[in-house]
UniProtKB/TrEMBL annotation:
Xref: InterPro entries: Metallo-B-lactamas (IPR001279), Mito_Persulfide_Diox (IPR051682), POD-like_MBL-fold (IPR044528), RibonucZ/Hydroxyglut_hydro (IPR036866)
Assembly mode: Homodimer. Monomer. Interacts with TST. May interact with RELA.
Domain of life according to the entry: Eukaryota
Organism this protein belongs to: Adineta ricciae (Rotifer)
The name this protein goes by in its record: Persulfide dioxygenase ETHE1, mitochondrial
CDD domains in alphabetical order: POD-like_MBL-fold
Family: Belongs to the metallo-beta-lactamase superfamily. Glyoxalase II family.
Any one GO biological process: hydrogen sulfide metabolic process
Enzyme Commission no: 1.13.11.18
GO molecular function: metal ion binding; sulfur dioxygenase activity
Keywords: Acetylation, Dioxygenase, Iron, Metal-binding, Mitochondrion, Oxidoreductase, Transit peptide
Cellular location(s): Mitochondrion
SUPFAM superfamilies per record: Metallo-hydrolase/oxidoreductase (SSF56281)
Length: 265
């Protein structure tokens, strides 16, 4: 049974006009989402905590901000169970390997399709649970290929929240021009697996380059500048994006295939 979420927005630290750490969704049972920002690659990391057990997961940690994240988990009295990646990132190295080394009991998670190393491999329809088996916190895994083949979107139904990684971004979407990128697959995945969620669900993206932090399904269904178009128009937009390659792509992709564990120099 789902409980009704009550909105609670608590800004904790602001730098350069951007909130670096913000509690977004908090439920009356103590469960919450904390959004954290990494400034070099404009990446969002999320801690999702189960209020009752104080167990937590982290989505898309970045290697350079692992110390910050580990300290916050400690301060909040949270036991990290899973470091989850939405996909094999091309712009930054994942922090999941480093978090595993720092926090005993933490396991890394990624989709099986990604081909990357991890402790736990997930597939479409799997549910990641923490806390009590019956009334703990549950994240549904939805395969949403297009940016990469192995992209997963995570749905926290009880918190009316969806973590879209580099699939749906606020008013935009992830690029589809490398790493098995495919705009047809992305369009289908978004319309069938993300835009079919209830309108009030909060969309938490993997990045934002314009200073925004979250959106909703209703907003993106109405105002997304790419995904509201026809499939043909969407394909044309994605083909003509002509973005330069991420600066760290050559070291990030190979490192992320092995959980962000860098070989000794
Ligand atoms: N300049 C950044 C890379 C920016 C970029 O390509 N972002 C990706 C997600 S990370 S692979 C993307 O999909 N962008 C979509 C868009 O429309 O901007 C860097 O050098 O790291």
């Amino acid at each position: 049974m789902f409980t009704r979420p009550s909105g609670c927005f608590l800004k904790t630290f602001i730098a350069h006009g951007r909130c670096l750490s913000e509690t977004k969704r908090a439920l009356s049972n103590g469960s919450f989402v904390r959004q954290l920002f990494e400034q070099i690659t404009s990446t969002y990391t999320y801690i999702i905590a189960d209020g009752k057990s104080r167990e937590a997961v982290i989505i898309d940690p970045v290697i350079t901000t692992v110390a910050r994240d580990a300290q916050l988990l400690k301060q909040l009295g949270l036991r990290l169970r899973y470091a989850i990646n939405t996909h094999v990132h091309a712009d930054h190295i994942t922090g999941s390997g480093k978090l595993k080394a720092l926090i005993p009991g933490c396991q890394s998670v990624i989709s099986k399709v990604s081909g990357a190393k991890a402790d736990v491999f997930i597939e479409d329809g799997d549910v990641i649970t923490i806390g009590d088996k019956k009334d703990g916190l549950a994240l549904e895994c939805r395969s949403t290929p297009g940016h990469t083949n192995g992209c997963m979107t995570y749905v926290w139904h009880e918190g009316a929240s969806v973590f879209t990684g580099d699939c749906v971004l606020i008013r935009g979407c992830g690029r589809t021009d490398f790493q098995q990128g495919d705009s047809n697959k992305m369009y289908k995945a978004v319309h069938e697996r993300i835009f079919t969620l209830p309108d009030n669900f909060i969309v938490y993206p993997g990045h934002d380059y314009t200073g925004q932090t979250s959106s909703t399904i209703a907003e993106e269904k109405n105002f997304n500048t790419r995904l509201t178009k026809s499939r043909e128009e969407f394909n044309r937009i994605m083909k003509e994006l002509k973005l330069s390659y991420p600066l760290q792509i050559d070291k990030a992709v190979p490192a992320n295939m092995i959980c962000g564990i860098l070989p000794e120099p």
